[in-house]
Design a protein that fits this description.
Length: 362
């Protein structure tokens, strides 16, 4: 199971789809869901929906949502010497950008470039300790003019991603860009595969959302016209327990199981999630001896947007912890991803008619 899940995860990492430019992942996700679902479609907004219809129309209907976009960049302009100025799509960490390779996704095909930096020989000591703002950074593709950049397909509005490949570390850890949220997409696909032949009572909607990294925009409308009783946002979350992070601030740890969130701290404030949905997943994990963690998410997830859809869909975020968030070297545990898939599979398999999402049971 671990090896099959890793192959799926690695295959999704090959697809470049920064926020607002998710078309490659829309196509890949639809193709992977087609043999697993009774119906698969995309919405005009770009969200993908796959439906596995349950055997009991009165059993709960559950949405599993994972976002298809990744943090990236976009061409802002090109200076007279052919150096490319850019801006962020999502929250890439500024100090992780300079000195790295990037891939510019032109209509003629990808072009590899590097994010330049001032020579250390002429950098003043006080300057060396500072991180320049994104407005001062630039990409070098070896071009000598704006015209040459244009000939190669680089124009204002062209998306950009890091040019990295996943690497396997010790103890089942993987370092890669875009673990957020290729891990979530791999998880919902693996759950769909597990449930395809089981014919469970509950109906499951597998949703790939767009533009999560720039404001949960796809999730805000993803479930609007779906008959859904509850939802799980399957994502990643920042983990601590590294030399420069105090555990009092970030107690979630890579390798101790997926994190079942109690609430979220984000730019919009603090939000609690559905404790009913959370208890349902906890009970499935405990009954099957599967490890997980409980905590508070730093940063918003699609769960926040789903909870505010229509009259409110009870939702919770279920996340794979990863170190070095929004950098080209996010590190996660394949064991955590496996446990998340197993917990969701058992929880969904056990849903029956009569399950209530009301906070006070009657």
């Amino acid at each position: 199971m671990h090896e099959k899940l890793k192959e799926l995860f690695f295959s999704l990492l090959e697809v470049d789809s920064p926020s607002g430019f998710e078309e490659p992942m829309i196509g890949r996700l639809m193709a992977l869901l087609e043999p697993l679902c009774d119906e698969v479609y995309q919405t005009p907004r770009g969200n993908v929906v796959g439906v596995q219809r349950g055997t009991d129309p009165e059993a709960p209907k559950v949405a599993l949502a994972a976002h298809m976009d990744q943090v990236g960049f976009v061409v802002f302009n090109v200076d007279p010497r052919g150096f490319i100025r850019f801006r962020k799509l999502g929250g890439a960490v500024d100090r992780s950008i300079q000195g790295h390779q990037v891939k510019i996704l032109t209509e003629k095909g990808p072009i590899v470039g590097v994010v330049g930096l001032k020579p250390g020989h002429i950098t003043r000591p006080e300057e060396a300790r500072q991180i320049p703002p994104i407005e001062e950074m630039y990409i070098d593709i070896g071009a000598g003019s704006p015209e040459e950049c244009a000939e190669r397909g680089v124009k204002v509005g062209t998306p950009i991603v890091w040019n990295t490949r996943p690497i396997e570390l010790g103890n089942g850890l993987v370092a890669t860009a875009a673990a957020d949220d290729r891990a979530g997409l791999a998880a919902i696909l693996a759950v769909a595969g597990n449930l395809k032949s089981r014919r469970i009572p509950a109906t499951v909607y597998y949703i790939g959302t767009v533009e999560e990294e720039i404001g949960l925009r796809g999730a805000a409308v993803a479930a609007y016209d779906l008959d859904v009783d509850m939802a799980v946002a399957v994502d990643t979350c920042p983990a601590g327990w590294q030399p420069d992070v105090n555990m009092r601030d970030l107690p979630i740890e890579v390798g101790l199981g997926p994190s079942l969130q109690i609430g979220e701290f984000s730019s919009g404030g603090f939000r609690l999630e559905s404790q009913v949905v959370r208890r349902w997943l906890m009970e499935a994990a405990d009954a099957n001896g599967l490890t997980y963690q409980s905590g508070f998410q730093h940063g918003g997830t699609d769960a926040s947007a789903l909870q505010q859809t229509k009259s409110g869909i009870p939702a919770v975020a279920f996340n794979v912890p990863r170190r070095y968030s929004h950098s080209p070297v996010e590190v996660l545990s394949m064991g955590d991803l496996h446990n998340l898939v197993e917990i969701l599979t058992h929880a969904l398999s056990g849903l029956r008619k009569g399950f209530s999402t009301l906070r006070v049971q009657q």
